[in-house]
Amino acid sequence: MYSEAKNPIAQKRNLVTAIPGPKSEQLIKRRAEAVSASLGTAFPVFIERAEGSIIMDVDGNSILDLGAGIAVLNVGHSSAKVIENVKTQIDAFTHTCFMVVPYTGYVEVCEALNRLTPGTHKKKSALFNSGAEAVENAVKIARKFTKRSAVVVFEHGYHGRTNLTMAMTAKNMPYKDGFGPFAPEVYRMPMAYPYRCDACIKPCESSVLSMVIHKIEKEIGASNVACIVIEPILGEGGFIVPCKGFLPGLAKFCKENGIIFIADEVQTGFGRTGHMFACEDESVVPDLIVTAKGIAAGLPLAGVTGRADVMDSIHLSGLGGTYGGNPVACAAALGAIETIEKDNLVERANKIGKIMNDALLQMAKKYSIIGEVRGRGAMQAIELIKPGSNEPNSDAQLAIIKYCISKGVLILSAGTYANVIRLLPPLIIDEDLLKDGLSVLDEAIASVKN
Ligand SMILES: *Cc1c(COP(=O)(O)O)cnc(C)c1O
Q1: Mutational pocket test of ligand 1: of 128, 293, 301, the residue with most ligand atoms within 8 Å of the beta carbon
Q2: What EC numbers are recorded for this enzyme (predicted)?
């Protein structure tokens, strides 16, 4: 499934030095001199190359990647068709600016997005460079179309780091602290968070949904709302899966009130959740859908796709940007999308998701610091608590991640309370390799002192 490089990387975890090794140590020092201290590091090695689900570092260690560059490498590292397309494109041309001289790849990516996103209605797309930029453009489109200004978002939501998307993102530290003032007319609503939601003690979908609708009507006025923007499963917020009925209820409220329903599927898209898009789970058809991360195997690309009447309501040259829909990124996207479809990676997400979910549920039986196992498809997480309460346990999160690093397994943190561990493996991962990673995670949790 991945490219046959000259020296293929064995799909096995293998450490030949401590983590970080001596060459990585040197580079970490060099980086500290040159790179702003504001940028974090989840895994303290420097990469040399990567293939499939394995990252080879500069010291020769083979690291098991259960983060996939934050749900970007759904097709795995060095995916053959992505590399082939990119090489061909680079030999032909690298840039024109689509608004100066157009090229086929851009159109083909838009056709693919229009075809793959939920709903059989006529759709159109526009391409951008990053998830945040695409979210901003979706809001611009919704505002222009509705001639309204209010934007509704949710607690625990994450939409990016630009000024408007910082305002839309829920969590202060590290995303917003000291970076204000933020864009106005963004209103945050309670989120259906079954594990921690007082209102969810009652039948969840009716109580939280009705609270949200009540607040929108009383505090904003439905006729002032341009769009409701929500991640179908919250990513950075800790893989919060809203209770059944919440998303369809919001979509229905939008329809009844002329509000544009925007699904931010930047993290959940392209097969990750066992559907091509997470909205499909409850047959929700968004007016606009925002995509990025999984779209192009790491080349910078993002899209806004949706109702043709909405997408076409913008004046000529109202949207755009110098690099948006870069030809090399489009070539990568076409390779990634072809691979997801040909290799049935949507189905595979369910298969590896079940392996992860089964293993995590077994761990939850053994370890009282696991408060909840949740997710869908190949997007699985555990929320860590102090035993005997549901108090967040961020110390355990740190300790577990540190242990996994020492064993060469890359896992990612998440959650408003910094107490969630999320697993986002490449969808092509070998099952034995995934099980190896899960057994290291099991050891890591066992090593945490309660
Ligand atoms: C990552 C992410 C974004 C921002 O994407 P960038 O490419 O980092 O700008 C927006 N929304 C969601 C749900 C994300 O996970």
Answers
A1: 293
A2: 2.6.1.19, 2.6.1.22
